[in-house]
């Protein structure tokens, strides 16, 4: 806002004597400024006494609870006692019903789309109730001087106001009419359209309050809100069923636990001020349930005996869940019992079907944590939580389980385990086999609802060769030390190895993380000491390593990747490729369905190509990779360690064999006589020719290999060694170009179509990346769309996972990156000059074309 306007308004407020006045005082002051002539005459309506709540009750339905509710025909009133004025409530909004248009967009029942903390304030002068909201992430000691400043600089904001419609006999509670905040007229409590991305406004004449329920600690309002969306010039009606929960927060928040970067928990940001500071203390509170022993069991607990928690964590299974999957989902919850026993609690988690006779049970009621089953074409699952932002306490968790997640599970198992497991080859799995996969996903998503983040570094703890050992895999019981990794199925094990433990399971890290997050301590001092000791006890053991999730397009630490297995991506990739060839050789046989089209075979074929691309990405991350260690003072670890030179060289060797030189058995094989790779799209199945797909994917890999950030990391590592005088071998940008160029331009004379394609992709990737550094307008980095439909399962927590950000990209135009890329183009040009007159006519035309392209790029 303009400063002059601010000052003008401020002077006006001073004139009225209102600079620090309340809205009620402002209204009162305006009345005193009126002349007698301007004062309104008293009318019957303005002079009569306020209505009594008892009179409203006589006209409608009265229910007692957190707020007593009164419903008079279509009007809804809340009776708010003075004792709850000023208390903090959490508003939790969820989707309850969705039409097809929204379902197709990936929005489904059970999704929590908006939360906020509010308080109600009674204004006796204006006869109103004001509603204010605050972001409660700041605190200070009550008696410190700075607390006055904290209150003024982190104040509440008004979001709504209600007229007081009635009051009880002794004026200790008032009634307000709340229709406008639930029927779509106002967005203050529930802005569903903005939060789900539909935009627009609610059509209030087509919207209404459906049901109101009140309980001792929360209140539930269900509404039907209607809008319209325009598709192809036609307005389509969209009615969303929404549920708003109003939850009373505890006067004293749970004692928070401070996050540590060496253990992966979701967290809530918090700022702490006090008089003794020399700077503000910024903390992260981990999100976790309030799990504590009963008062009579605390001594037993501290002696090391297992005790039951005062309040266990209970999950209800959506009655809409198909019967054959219920027990497997429940088993996935109970798999965590052993982890909580490590934290000192027995029977800490419970999973069950709701009682059919419980009329109050409601999936959208925050008193119940529910694994909600969504009928949807979406193939996913997620585990969000409702959190008290003051402390990180998880109040309720809801897992959204999309029906079509089974399509992803089936594809993973067929492609990753089909060669070693006959049960994973058919078009339809047995209920038992699919059920075990469902159990794994249940365990993973439930882990998120305990506050656990993905640990993408866990799988690096297992030596690749050990994944081929029946003894090792039987002992470890999974593919990684953590089920919170995306270490899917064991694609390393080969036929004949005898490995049968090929499914992810809860592991050593998971039990350790739950102990760190949930073990109860009697005071902050003992807690802080014990938690630090627990981490330091295991900090050098790779089984307890936490590797943060990274953006797959910008992976820096190759140890922490999605979908990878083992401590050596090159070895794992080679074993994976052997198994993948078996899948491709048998793909038509495994998908045979008499009289049916080949569409499903084409989709599985695309999945196999996607698996090859995953292996390529896992290996490529080693080139220019940096090991990112979570270090603290007192640790002798280096925070940043370049991937060893020999490892990077082996990675490039792998890429040359399996990505730069495309595997012909994958792209050009008998399958293509029956079907091309098929991708799902909104317009239906989308067929992709092998040559087109191969060309695009090869280009994307070459471009990614020479991305500026990767080369800058290599240059920085070279600079460190140059400055320090280290004699340690390093892998340089020149080494990278020499190795790749030597493989691509090693043939003189007649070239095949694929060889010409590879050379063109190499040259074009360099030209495009150089040109992008000198574009006048800011543009996003090139992202090559390879048109793959690779299934993933992800979690959702309402905000990003706080991915680690490290800047390697600043001022790229003046870095050595462009110099190296242009020098490489010149080296290729010199090679082409030597071969331009060799080979057949098509090859000579190809050489001439590349020479022209490079000369234009270099302005020659």
Automatic annotation (TrEMBL):
Residues 51-98 form the DUF5118 domain. Residues 427-748 form the EcxA zinc-binding domain. Residues 31-50 are annotated as: Disordered. Residues 1-27 form the signal peptide. Residues 110-294 form the DUF5117 domain. The keyword Signal applies. This is Metalloprotease. It comes from Chryseobacterium oranimense.
